[in-house]
Design a protein that fits this description.
By secondary structure, the chain is α+β, with helices and mostly antiparallel strands. It is built from 22 helices and 5 strands. The longest helix is centred in the middle third of the chain and has 75 residues. The N terminus and C terminus are likely disordered.
Length: about 600
Amino acid sequence: MRILFFCLIFHTAFCQQFQEEIELKRLYQQTPSASVLNQIAQNLTHLNLLDSSLHTSRKALILAENEKNKDEISKTHLNLAIILQKRGRYFEATNAYENAIKTAQNDEMLATAYHLISTCYKDQKLLDKTDETNNKAIEIARKHNYKVIWAKCLNTRGLTIFRQEDYYKKALETFHQALKVAEQTNDDNIKSVINKNIGWVHLLWYEEEIGLRFINKAIEIQLRSDRSEVRQNLFYSYMVLIHFYNLIKKDYQLSNLYCQKALDIAQKYGWVEEKAGVYHYFYLNFKALNQATKALEYHEKYQAVLEKLNEDMALTQKAIIEEKSKTTSLEFENLKNENQRNWLIFTILILLVGSALIFRLYYLNRKKNREIEEINQTLEKKVEVRTQELQTAYDEIKDAMMRGQTLERKRVAADLHDNLGSLLSAIGLSTETLDESKLSDKEKKIFENIKSQIKEAYQDVRLFSHNLQPAELEKEGLYQALEMLAQKINSLNKIHLELDLESLTPKPQNVEFNLYSICLEAINNILKHSNATEAKIAFERGQEGMIMRISDNGIGLKTHDAGGTGFRNIQSRVEQLGGELEIHSDEKGVVIEVRIAPPPHRRTALKGS
């Protein structure tokens, strides 16, 4: 009954907004104006009809320019920027926000534009520009007491602070400042968002009671609101609870309940990426509940949506690149043709006027060269910006490929454990049914050898499936994953593996994944080929970055061993990290050194609010 009640509320809100859309279109047919078109575009944006909203906003801009209505011109630029930002077209969105700032007719519009462009920079992870533009918005909002904008700016500042290491207390203080300002307004949207963010921080730092109080406050505000943008934020409140009950409380049934609520919202508004996130949590919950059929169903749904997102992203990036390449070529060609025409005119003038105008032509020529130089500088800046944009697109595609590889490793590990592991267990149980008393001494030895080999094979399968994608690496990081690896290796009683992890600090997930893979490959080689009794993995900080050293006391390398598949895999991983590999071998053993320079300073921003 409760779910039916929620669905009825969503349906009523959608119908009300749709009715408003029809009324605005009727009004526009009677009295066409940029103002009415802007309202239609805003409603289409709330309904997630971004293509229609973009088309309507462009028509509104033409009308506003014809009407010479500066206020509507600024509003239209702002609408266009919001839509382009939602589509991930950040370069065009930034230009539209800058146009809105230039044409703003009042301080409230100016503060709004500065705040929204700061969120665009945040999505691009350009945190210095985020702080710069957000501070300008705060200065204007505080001066004129625009409390809604002020609260939004403080919320954005809190989000940029939160992802910095050991800054959660400062972020929490900023969110509370934002909430104090928001409570003085009638804007339910910003109140609910800030309450949700405060609850999120508390839950992540295991302050459950406080966190749930703020999250429930946010949900209460969102449920009773009639505004679609407020109700849409229910999705993000539910996602916080899904994450909390799945990863922290391990209450998978309750996590599934909020998954269903979040999925209903994502399906209602046609959100694809958000739907993929919900499917992934369904998969994790059902897997933890040992409901394999359900887990597989949602895992397949998640992969299908993920593949669709990757395809859409690739097509979008390709279209943007082609469009920008065409525009750049056309601009260059026009410039070239213009220069040719100018030179022809100069030549004709020289022939007609003669030597009396030589000085004049010289002056004009110098002036034109300066103009060309300025145009070339402008083109170089555009090329630089577009190159950065292409690099961003490449990084996103690379991250998507990394996520795909991780999913495939998990699938293979699960198949090995569930299928081959189960088969070996079944074979082991079958051998227990044999009556050993009826076997000869020779058959008993063979029988015992078979049981030992089955047990060893089962242990190897379990170890291999776990090491393909250990849960400790994903949940708790490289430190814990190596600890667990050492425990498993040492439990085999084949070799003693020692760890020196005092200098190991948390790294980005892709770096930790590659370092773990290098350790795994090296230890595998030691077990198979070195005849060693001891091995060691150590980390230390060098002047030029981090050094990871893997050593053993075995027989050393033969010449052909250094070119084997194992070392080629290690070399490939080191190249992905942008590092250097050195291998030292003698009769006392082998030492593998991996040197990794520190990465360029990058910060990450909190997304989804």
